[in-house]
Predict the structure.
Amino acid sequence: MLGLGVFLLMALTAMTGSWLAPHDPLEQDLLNSFLPPFWVAGADPAFLLGTDNLGRDVLSRLIYGTRVALMVAVIAATLTGMLGTTVGLLAGFFGGWVDTLVSRMVDIWMAFPAVLLSIVLVAVIGAGLHAVIIAIIVIDWTRFCRVVRAETMVQCQQDYVASAVTIGLSRRRRLFVEILPNILPLLISLLTLEMGIAVVVEAILSYVGLSVASDAATWGGLIQEGRLYVNQAPWLMVFPIACIIVAVLGFNALGDGLRSAFDPVLRR
């Protein structure tokens, strides 16, 4: 429930960001630069979490950054899961040369450092949100593939699959009607874990300036801007880092909870 609460809070913030944000995240006011959060002496009540070096409202920028983070998390994790699950199902079900080919491809793919490969991919494709999503899909499909492949091989040895063969079900029905529903709890856990990873990857790429436009509000961009003034205004780094940590822990908690709720073995 805690993880679900974090997810719903992020979704609500992303959908109502333009109404919820007290200020324009790009509006600058140099006369109000480096205002502290509301609990520190000298704060301005109009800027609850203070302002940055250009006088922009930190709270508004965090709210708009939530929209970017959630969009990347949902889209990238879903597409990554679809690709990795499909390949993993085929490798685990058919075995033989299909499994060998997929396994070797996964081994080669995972030999590259994930963060370095994502930076190279975005640099080649071009900066932008679409490039970040493509980079996450290209890098992380192997995570789903390996786990789904192993679980599919285990499920293929179960009695219900042997019964499906006995009554003459086709390979496609055995794979997508019998086996796939039994690995859905695992897929849900992987999906929410991937959402947390996608948030971190987007923050890293934003930090190095390879995500959305440089003036747009992103959590990674806020960290990059805040590091220049960490001694003068530490809150500029603390708040976006806290948002990333809460989001990742929330997604992980949601995945664990959903798997426990849907997996009949864990439920017993």
Summary: The chain is about 75% helix and 0% strand. The chain has a mean pLDDT of 87.
